[in-house]
TrEMBL record:
Name used for this protein in its record: tRNA-specific 2-thiouridylase MnmA
Keyword Repeat included in the entry's annotation: no
UniProt record, GO biological process: tRNA wobble position uridine thiolation
Gene Ontology, cellular component aspect: cytoplasm
InterPro entries named among the record's database cross-references: MnmA-like, MnmA-like_C, MnmA-like_central, MnmA-like_central_sf, Rossmann-like_a/b/a_fold
Gene: mnmA
Keywords: ATP-binding, Cytoplasm, Disulfide bond, Nucleotide-binding, RNA-binding, Transferase, tRNA processing, tRNA-binding
C-alpha cells in the first residue's frame, strides 16, 4: 500500500509514543519516500505516578528516534484533554458501576480526534500510528497480520471517512519482524518492552488509582444462592469476571464477580458457569461497514483477546450469541467482524 501512496511525495504526521512499533512505522514511511513529521502527544500524569512520570522517558525515546531518522520532532500537549475526556470518563464509569475501556476512548478522542484534526490542519496528507491493523484504499479496516498483536478491537470508533487518511505501517508485519527492522534501522529502542496498562498513564494498580477519586465503602458479598460470604470495600472497584481481590474465607472458592448492585453496594459472586450469558445489549454503535440487512450474523469479540464468537445482531442493538459467552461486562466494547474485515462496534450496556 505504501508504494501506491508515494507516487507523489506526501506529508505524514506520525504519532510517536517512544515505543518500537511507532518508531519502525516512522522509519518505514521515510524509507518509502514520505515527508515525515514525528509527533509525541503528552499524556495526563495523575498523582499515582509520582513526580517522575513515564511520559518524560517515552518522549525522550521518541525524540532520539526522530534525530536518528533525521525528521522533525514536535510535542503536542494533550494532557488536559486526556484528563478530561479519558481519565474522568474512566473514573465516572467506575462510579456508575461499569467497566470502561480507556484505550478505545483514547483512540477516539485523542489519536483519531485531536491528533488527526490538528495534523490535517497542519498540512498532513496522512497520519500514521504504530497500531497493528490494516487499511485499504477503499476505506476499509482489516485485522493485522500478527493475530497475537491485532489491535482492531480498540480501533472500531474510527470514522469511515478518516480511513483513507490513516496509515498503519506495521500492520502487515509480525512483532519479531518489527524488532528486527528496528535493529536494522539502528533504533536505540529496538528491545524496549511493550507498554502495558492504561493508554494514558501506563501500568499501575487500578484499585489504588480509583481510591484516589472514589471513597471506599464497606459492603456485602453475596453468592448467587443468596448466602452472605464476605465483605468488600466498594462495589465500584470490582469488575465482572474478577476472581482475585475478593475477601472470601469459606474455603469453597474460587468465586467470580457475576453481578453488582451499585446502589446497594453489593457484589454477587458465583462459579465459572455463572459467568456465561446468551445475549447482550449494545449501544453507541459505530459502523465502518454497516450490514445491508438485520438481523446480521457476525463474528464478535466481546473483550480484548477474547476469541471471536458467532452472534446475531438485531437492528435495536440486541446481540444474541450462538453459544453462551463468558463475562459479558457493561462498559466494555463488542466489536463486529466478518472475516478479516472490521465492520464496527459498540458499548455493552
Amino acid at each position: 500500500m505504501l508504494k501506491q501512496l508515494t507516487k507523489a511525495k506526501k506529508r505524514v504526521f506520525v504519532a510517536m509514543s517512544g515505543g518500537v512499533d511507532s518508531s519502525v512505522s516512522a522509519a518505514l514511511l521515510k524509507k518509502a519516500g514520505f515527508d515525515i513529521v514525528g509527533v509525541y502527544m503528552r499524556q495526563w500524569a495523575p498523582p499515582i505516578l509520582g513526580k517522575e512520570c513515564i511520559w518524560k522517558t517515552d518522549r525522550q525515546d521518541a525524540m532520539k528516534v526522530c534525530a536518528k531518522l533525521g525528521i522533525p520532532f514536535l510535542t503536542w500537549d494533550f494532557s488536559k484533554e486526556y484528563e478530561k475526556e479519558v481519565g474522568k470518563y474512566m473514573i465516572e464509569s467506575y462510579k456508575k458501576g461499569i467497566t470502561p475501556n480507556p484505550d478505545v476512548m483514547c483512540n477516539k478522542i485523542i489519536k483519531f480526534g485531536l491528533f488527526f484534526d490538528r495534523a490535517m490542519k497542519g498540512g498532513a496528507d496522512y497520519v500514521a500510528t504504530g497500531h497493528y491493523a490494516r487499511t485499504s484504499l477503499g476505506n476499509k479496516l482489516f485485522k493485522a497480520k500478527d493475530k497475537n498483536k491485532d489491535q482492531t478491537y480498540f480501533l472500531y470508533t474510527i470514522k469511515k471517512s478518516q480511513l483513507s487518511k490513516i496509515i498503519f505501517p506495521v500492520g502487515n508485519l509480525e512483532k519479531p519482524e518489527v524488532r528486527k527492522l528496528a535493529k536494522k534501522f539502528g533504533l536505540q529502542n529496538a528491545e524496549k518492552k511493550d507498554s502495558q496498562g492504561v493508554c494514558f498513564v501506563g501500568q499501575f494498580n487500578m484499585k489504588e488509582f480509583l481510591k484516589m477519586y472514589i471513597k471506599s465503602k464497606i459492603g456485602k458479598i453475596i453468592d448467587v444462592n443468596g448466602e452472605y460470604v464476605g465483605d468488600h470495600d466498594g462495589a465500584f472497584y470490582y469488575t465482572i469476571g474478577q476472581r482475585h481481590g475478593l475477601d472470601i474465607k469459606n474455603g469453597q472458592g474460587p468465586y467470580f464477580v457475576v453481578r453488582k448492585d451499585i446502589k446497594k453496594n453489593i457484589i454477587y459472586v458465583g462459579r465459572e458457569k455463572d459467568l456465561h450469558s446468551s445475549k447482550a445489549e449494545i449501544k453507541n454503535i459505530n459502523w465502518i461497514q454497516k450490514p445491508k440487512k438485520f438481523p446480521a450474523l457476525l463474528d464478535v469479540r466481546a473483550r480484548y483477546r477474547a476469541p471471536l464468537i458467532k452472534a446475531e445482531l438485531k437492528k435495536d442493538g440486541t446481540l444474541n450469541f450462538k453459544k453462551p459467552e463468558r463475562a459479558i461486562t457493561p462498559g466494555q466494547s463488542a466489536v463486529f467482524y466478518r472475516g478479516k474485515h472490521v465492520l464496527g462496534g459498540g458499548i455493552i450496556c
